[in-house]
Amino acid sequence: MTEPLQWARYHWQRLMGGPARDGDERRYSYSTLLACGGKPSQTPRLAGRHRVVVPHLQPFKEEYEKFSGTYVNNRIRTTKYTLLNFVPRNLFEQFHRAANLYFLFLVVLNWVPLVEAFQKEITMLPLVVVLTIIAIKDGLEDYRKYKIDKQINNLVTKVYSRKEKKYLDQCWKDVTVGDFIRLSCNEVIPADMVLLFSTDPDGICHIETSGLDGESNLKQRQVVRGYAEQDSELDPEKFFSRIECESPNNDLSRFRGFLEHSNKERVGLGKENLLLRGCTIRNTEAVVGIVVYAGHETKAMLNNSGPRYKRSKLERRANTDVLWCVLLLVIMCLTGALGHGIWLSRYGNIPFFNIPEPNGHVISPVLAGFYMFWTMIILLQVLIPISLYVSIEVVKLGQIYFIQSDVDFYNEKMDSTIQCRALNITEDLGQIQYLFSDKTGTLTENKMVFRRCSVAGFDYCHEENAKRLESYQEAASEDEDFAGTPSGSLSHVAKPRAPSGRTLQSGPLGGKPSKHLAGSWSALGGGEGAGEGPRCRQAAFSSPMETDVLPDTRLLDKFSQITPQLFAPLDETLPNPPPETWYIIDFFIALAICNTVVVSAPNQPRQKIRLSSLSGMPIKSLEEIKNLFQRLSVRRSSSPSLASGKEPSPGVQNAFVSKLSLFSRTKLASPVEEAVSRTADSPQGSGSSAGPTEKEKQNGDAGITSGKADSLPGQPVTSSLCYEAESPDEAALVYAARAYQCTLQSRTPEQVMVDFAALGPLTFQLLHILPFDSVRKRMSVVVRHPLSNQVVVYTKGADSVIMELLSVASADGASLEKQQMVIREKTQKHLDDYAKRGLRTLCIAKKVMSDTEYEEWLRNHFLAETSIDNREELLLESARRLENKLTLLGATGIEDRLQEGVPESIDALHKAGIKIWMLTGDKQETAVNIAYACKLLEPDDKLFILNTQSKDACEMLMGTILKELQKKNPAFPKQASLSKDLYQPSAPQGSGLRAGLVITGKTLEFALQESLQRQFLELTACCQAVVCCRATPLQKSEVVKLVRNHLRVMTLAIGDGANDVSMIQVADIGIGISGQEGMQAVMASDFAVSQFKHLSKLLLVHGHWCYTRLSNMILYFFYKNVAYVNLLFWYQFFCGFSGTSMTDYWVLIFFNLLFTSAPPVIYGVLEKDVSSETLMLLPELYRSGQESEAYLPLTFWITLLDAFYQSLVCFFVPYYTYRGSDIDIFTFGNPLNTAALFIILLHLVIESKSLTWIHVMVIVGSILSYFIFALAFGAMCITCNPPSNPYWIMQEHLLDPVFYLVCVLTTCIALLPRFVYRVLQGSLFPSPVLRAKHFDRLTPEARTEALKKWRGAGQLGQAASERAVHAAARPEGGSTCGPSAVFAMTPSACSIEQGNLFVLETALDSDCSETKT
Questions:
Q1: How many other CB atoms are there within 10 angstroms of residue 628's CB atom?
Q2: Tens digit of pLDDT for each residue in 245-284?
Q3: How many C-beta atoms lie closer than 10 Å to residue 478's C-beta?
């Protein structure tokens, strides 16, 4: 009974628009519920923010029904409707629109006999047609979703049956929370489940998350601690534990909970233990897990937002004008009601005009006027354009189709094109005023190439490697993909793309990303074949440019000093090695192991490298066999169950004791391993370590990994390894370490093996990994060093963070601390130099811990790991206790090159009047360098840098800069005035001083405070470009929100990574780049492109077109409705305001619904005022959209006035023509309708800038359909509307020359003013768009000359304005004393950096800091 109730509750919540579960709260809003380290709860609680999961087994039957049985099952339904609720729910949703409610009210009103204007059926027709069209569209879309849902729900997986005591095939839809699921390699995960068993001996499961976030790299997931050391597969019947975890949420990067055994002992659960629905099992024979989230509560489904629906700025403006039309309608109806009352009062004694009721009662003129008001509402209802909203939807779909069909957006490398995920904001692309961009992966390629490093204070410039990169830069991009293919490197798999990745791009809905799990489609379309052979494709971040690092010769020479004897007992005969040698060893070890890189082989890139296998291993000596088995014994001894000699029983293990025992055992085993390593390093004598024997040994090691005894000449054997990294930075550092023969060979949850040049294979016991996060901005690994037997912490991270964590000077270690201070100072200089070159910098550091210190830290860290509430805060505090008093080893400089076409795109966007802000997490110098490289900042710009440590200093510095800018450029004070919180358009390029602003993350924190927001915005309004460096993801979104809300401007945010999601979602338009950092940004975006350069055409061309088309189409709808309805209104003055129509009701209804509806739709889809080539050559044309020139309030009222004029002409020319004749009412109305049709259609022709055969065909078709309908209707409808009828009227008029004369004369007089105005506008005072339109008619040579003249005239104007502004701003006497001396700038830049308020005041009085970038 619980399942129907749960189904009903869930779908009722969905129907009402509420959350699926009450526990689906916002991220990171958990309150403290469990005390860390306290006693576990005696009775399970189903708290609102936690969930309890118990096995779906017989012993837990009662508890299961209490907890897990109440959760939703795994059936998914992304459809809105069912057969039963389709009609009522669709109508309910459609009547959320005010326009539909308005017309429904008119339909009901027309059924009231006292105010009836038309036949009841006729009034219903427009509304029924509109509702039917939208219902059919919604129904077809929903049916496609239904078929996809059905296919996914009926996929089969193996679920443990408590009755059969074995795993049975079961449909996905029947899986429930608490079920045990067994999956094999290449199977798609059906629900979110905690990993309890893996056939991998290390308890690892590899998954591919491309179906979830688009990342094709393998991710490692780990069996819950205490279950990894099982000799046989997990028996569900022996599982007596329960799981308590957080309630369902959409955070893919977080999972918090614990597994509680029957003896109340707990084991912490994290994201590394969770297998997510939609991911695919790789490289693992089989896994077993227990379901914790199913169906719509899985993280994949909670992230399934589908297309984004926003209301565009233009649509909001149109809604306002609809209200003006309503007001106009009310005025016209009041006029009719008042006129009707006056008419009856004047002729009250004449029965012909005031017919009494059957009982003899005569309605008073006042009451009759009241009734007539409602009759006029029905009669003039067409004034409100009901078809406008349907037409807008159709036009936007057409615009999206043409945007997606543009071949210029296609990226052949990635086999992807643009995605339009938001269906109703295309016109906003043409009105963008502020653009906020990420740097890495958005402006740059996100191909991290190792360039330089600093070790122990010595800089190594890697000149040979720089020359290699120059050769890549000179080579064509096509050649780069195939470079080095014959050598057997990784580049031979550069071209093929992942099938699942392509499925994600062109999902089953056609052109839009799959809303479900794209990974499941590999199982549907050919999942069996997927497991037949290796998946041959390139891992991310592994192009030859990134992998083939050439070592620095000076640093390579110092590597020759590294020998196994360094770790031998002290020998007085050997000279002491320089201290730098130890730094070099630790530095490259940190590069190799301080990461989460997965190691695989290129010929089978999804197969993990196993060094413990003896197959294919060239055995050279018994000593090596001994070494191998000793290493294996050390690794396997880490299993608590095997070490105790007992059969594993996970239900009664104490995880914390296990971890401590593991720590103690590895501590005892390390001396053995140290001796083994020392012996293995010199099997044939100490003097031959660097000779042929060492090379032979390396070849042997390579044979273990690749199964080959020989390699190609001239190529390092280590290239047989393939590294799958989650970020390009990690990959670059690992490849750099490999270049110096410090090769990462394998990685398991317990150990990392590195082959280090002369030292041979080193196996590091992996004790802990503290992953990188945006708060700490660093990553650490805790290992037991195999040579020194010490617990060592290796840390890498941002220099601003690492430098603050270094150990301070102490009295007992003066020489060592002095050495560290020197290294720190030199390294800082090198970091500054790297940043000025545009390199991304990282610092490498280490820390040696005693066993007691580590044991104490581990105890506290375990308490943090096992808590659910406040876990992030506790883990952060634990990391801070570990990552302090570090020893600086060195730094790295990694180059991330600009994407192709970025400088040109930014230059074009600047010319288009768009203000561009770069928001990045990189350090200041790197951000500024990239800003200059991509032309965000120009060499002549005055650059101001805000870098303060206090709020008061920030306020004072911003005020000083503002005063200086206002003094230098008199135009700025007006622009910077934000008293009304309105956007002030930026001054045109060249209007005076160009200023740029750089602000750091700490200062940005102060500037975003409410008291400084206005001043900050005033300052940025004076700047052409703004660079925010060291900005966190939250600060990015806050900046966008601040600018959008306070300046009321149209904003666009573009990014490629998960850290850009919040910024993308806050902006009016969010654009994701489908780069190398997965699909998180794409899934959160409104549009997705593959490269930044595509943004220029998307905005300058398609944005301009979409805005212009839709604006003119909406204005045209208002025009044609007002023009036609006024014909009925003018007629009321001649019929006693009786609500009579001179046109048959069917013609009246079909005029707007059929005869004049198609041409504006075609216009809205196909109109091109200027060609795409001209729009790209002249970005200045984009400013017309920013200023809403096509749809201003004045334009709207001029359009209505023109409609009034045309309706007057259209009515009174036929009226005076037939005045005094004996024609009937419909015979008089027929010329009015015909002339109105020609006027309205030819009006569109005058407004069109590009007429194609499609336009002509649609206009001719509309005219023909009108005449065919009128002829057929007149021939068949003999008594349709007694006493008058349209019988044979059109046939008689077609034989009457006066009819033709009236139609031609009326059309010419009505359209003459608009036609003359357009001619004069094009000749005497053309707008920039009209001037550019003439370029399209010129020959290529003439167009080139015209463009030169256009730009030359603009540059002359700019130069004149610059001279005027500079003359006004030049100080008399040229003195540089006083406050202005602070800004005595070089031609390239000026920076003002102060540490605090005191330093700032001193600088303002007497000093200026100038830095060249």
A1: 19
A2: 988 988 877 888 999 888 888 888 988 899 999 888 988 8
A3: 9
State the first-to-last Cα distance of the chain, in angstroms, to the nearest integer.
Answer: 71
Which pLDDT score, from 0 to 100, does residue 473 have? Answer: 59
Q: Where are the alpha helices (DSSP H) in 1084-1157?
A: 1094-1097, 1104-1132, 1145-1150
Which residues lie closer than 8 Å to 528 by C-beta, 6 or more apart?
none
**Contact at 8 Å (CB) between 1225 and 1281?**
no
DSSP state of 1153: I
HEC profile for 490-510?
HHHHCCCCCHHHHHHHCCCCC
pLDDT, average across residues 305-313: 67
Q: Please write the tens of the pLDDT for every residue from 648-684.
A: 333 333 444 444 444 433 333 333 333 334 334 433 3
**Of 636, 580, 520, residue with least CA distance to 890:** 580
CA-based radius of gyration for the chain: 38
**CA 1380/CA 214 separation, integer angstroms:** 53
Q: How much is the pTM?
A: 0.70
Residue 180 burial by CB count (10 A; 0-12/13-18/19+): exposed, middle or buried? buried
Helix, strand or coil, per DSSP, at residue 336: helix
995 vs 938: CA distance, rounded Å: 9
pLDDT reading at 355 higher than 90: no
H/E segment holding residue 120: helix 120-153
Residue with tokens 């794209």: 518
Name the residue among 351, 441, 435 with its Cα closest to residue 922: 441
The enclosing H or E element of 1253 equals: helix 1253-1276
Question: How far is CA 99 from each of CA 131, 134, 325, rounded to the nearest angstrom?
Answer: 12, 14, 12
**Contact in structure between 80 and 142 (CB atoms under 8 Å):** yes
Better pLDDT: 789 or 194: 194
Which amino acid does the sequence have at 687? G
CA distance 987 to 1365: 13
Q: How confident is the model at residue 1130 (pLDDT cuts 50, 70, 90)?
A: very high
Indicate the range of 9-18, 29-38, 1136-1145 predicted with least confidence: 29-38
Contact yes or no for 1232/1143 (Cβ under 8 A): yes
Alpha carbon 1363 to its chain centroid, in Å, reads 44
CA distance 1203 to 250: 52
Give the SS3 label for residue 512: coil
Q: Does position 67 have pLDDT exceeding 80, yes or no?
A: no
Average pLDDT across the chain, whole number:
74
pLDDT of residue 1314: 93
CB atoms within 10 A of CB 105: 13
Residues 531-555: tens digit of each pLDDT: 333 333 455 566 666 677 888 888 8
**pLDDT at residue 947, as a whole number:** 87
Burial grade of 1316 (CB within 10 A; 0-12, 13-18, 19 or more): exposed
What residues are paired with 1073 via a beta bridge?
A: 1089
**Apex 170 CA angle, 9 and 148, nearest 5:** 65
Question: Known catalytic residues?
Answer: 438
Q: Which residues are 158's β-sheet partners?
A: 169, 182
Alpha-carbon span 569 to 675, nearest angstrom: 11
1204-1208 long-range contacts, CB within 8 A, separation 24+: 1204/1122, 1204/1123, 1204/1126, 1205/1310, 1205/1313, 1206/1123, 1206/1239, 1206/1243, 1206/1310, 1206/1311, 1207/1122, 1207/1123, 1207/1124, 1207/1125, 1207/1126, 1207/1127, 1207/1129, 1207/1130, 1207/1236, 1208/1126, 1208/1130
- Amino acid letter, 696: E
CB atoms within 10 A of CB 1051: 25
Query: In one letter, which amino acid is 334?
Result: L
| β partners of residue 156 | 171
